[in-house]
Each structure stands twice: as structure tokens, then as C-alpha cells.
Amino acid sequence: MSLFFNCDSPSIWQTYLSDPASITMEGILIFNKHLFFLLTVIVIFVAWLLFYTIFYYTEYNNEYATPFVHSKELEIIWTSVPALILLLISTPSFTLLYAMDEISEPELSLKILGHQWFWSYEISDFNSCQKSDQNLKYVCYMMVLDGLPATKQGYFRLLETNKRVILPTNTHLRLLVSAADVLHSWTVPSFGLKVDACPGRLNQLNLFIKRVGVFFGQCSEICGVNHGFMPIVVVGLPTIQFHHYIMTKLELG
Ligand SMILES: [Cu+2]
């Protein structure tokens, strides 16, 4: 099976957000549309007001200045209307924020550790992991394409890693993020996730991948000279295939 199906890599001159692959990202997209609508209405209204004032209140049209200097009603309106608009924005914003923090019963935990300049991952939720050293621990470095043969040049430049993180779809996942040296940030736009990896601190995230695919991300906290060269690749597999992968990895099957 090719792992290149439905690639969610960024495209050239991409200006819009990535296609959502998690509930969080779907929420972010809906909120983004909501904000964009409000923003467009406000920009059109303010621009109209500005041009109207410039064209109709020039000294050519109005020789004598009016004695109008103050209006209490106007003050009340232009204070309360923006306040109401902010209230209108805050409701879905807080809903989304608290929905992201919602702790569900995770079926799997992935430990993510940022290093200068690579990511290391660990899955140790399986009984056999405790009994032996057969746990799923691996290190993901960026793949340098320059030296590869022509047949393998189809990989994404600066986005591919030597190993891909394999996670099940339609499963509640918990991500535990930390760093070994300096600040990093584990970011995958398709999941709507971005969490700082701080040394000495453990950050927790919830993830529910809704569809199969290959998702790309990059470190998003400046962490040194090779900050731009520590990408993240996550493969979302159907649960049954994920189980098969685990069984083969742990030599249980
Ligand atoms: Cu970095």
C-alpha cells in the first residue's frame, strides 16, 4: 500500500488553511469563516463611512463649518456596537477553546519529545512494552533528498522524515509533548494543533483524527540553526491497519 494517498502537504502559493482532518481543525475553519464574514461587513461599512465623509463634507460643499461638536447618543452607539460585535466573536471563540481542552478517555498516548533538531516519539500503552524493551520508540529526522536516487525524488522537500508517526483514525488520542533541550513547538496544521514543547514541562493535547491521510507539520518555535529542518509527518491509518502495524512492530502477530 502506498503511503502517498491523500497527501495533505502544503501547496505552492497556498493562501488558505489546510484541509481539516480533526474536529479541532473543523471548528477552527468554521470560526474562521464566521470571523471573515464579520470582518468583511465591518471593512465595507467603515470604508463607505470614510469615503462618504471625504466627498460630502469638503469645504467646497460646505462653506461654513457647523457648530456641531458633541453627541452623547453617537458616543453611546459607537461604543456599544463594537462591544456587541466583540461579544458575538467571543462566544464561538471560547466554545472552541474549551472544546479543545476537553479531556476524553484516550485509548492511546503518544509521547513527543523535541530535540535540537529532531523529534522523538514513544508509544508505550501496550502490556508487552512494560515486559520487555519492545516499546515503540523512534527518532524522526528530516530526510535529505539530495543524495537519493532519481526514483525516490518524489518525496516532499524539507517535509519528509526518515520514519513517519503512525496513528489510528477515529480513536481518542492523547499527545504528551515536552522537550529535551530548548523550546520547540509540535505543529500539524491539518489537525489544528500547535503546542509548545518546553523542557521540564509536560503539555497535553487531545487528538481525534477523522480521516486517513499523510499529514505534514514543522517545528514552530525558533530553536536554533536547524529549526527549519525538523519536520513532522503523521500517517493516519484505519484502526484495523494500525493494530496490524503494532502487532508486527512488537512481534506479537
Ligand atoms: Cu524549532
TrEMBL record:
Domain Cytochrome oxidase subunit II transmembrane region profile stretches: 9-104
GO cellular component: mitochondrial inner membrane
Keywords for the protein's UniProt record, in alphabetical order: Copper, Electron transport, Membrane, Metal-binding, Mitochondrion, Mitochondrion inner membrane, Respiratory chain, Translocase, Transmembrane, Transmembrane helix, Transport
GO molecular function: copper ion binding; cytochrome-c oxidase activity
Membrane spanning residue stretches: 35-57, 77-99
BP terms from Gene Ontology: ATP synthesis coupled electron transport
Origin superkingdom: Eukaryota
Residue intervals of the Cytochrome oxidase subunit II copper A binding domain: 105-248
Cofactor binding note: Binds a copper A center.
Pfam family, one: COX2_TM
Membrane-related topology note: Multi-pass membrane protein
Listed cofactors: Cu cation
Compartments (UniProt record): Membrane; Mitochondrion inner membrane
Catalytic activity: 4 Fe(II)-[cytochrome c] + O2 + 8 H(+)(in) = 4 Fe(III)-[cytochrome c] + 2 H2O + 4 H(+)(out)
Location (main, coarse): membrane
Function: Component of the cytochrome c oxidase, the last enzyme in the mitochondrial electron transport chain which drives oxidative phosphorylation. The respiratory chain contains 3 multisubunit complexes succinate dehydrogenase (complex II, CII), ubiquinol-cytochrome c oxidoreductase (cytochrome b-c1 complex, complex III, CIII) and cytochrome c oxidase (complex IV, CIV), that cooperate to transfer electrons derived from NADH and succinate to molecular oxygen, creating an electrochemical gradient over the inner membrane that drives transmembrane transport and the ATP synthase.
Similarity comment: family membership: Belongs to the cytochrome c oxidase subunit 2 family.
Protein name: Cytochrome c oxidase subunit 2
Source organism of this protein record: Trieres regia
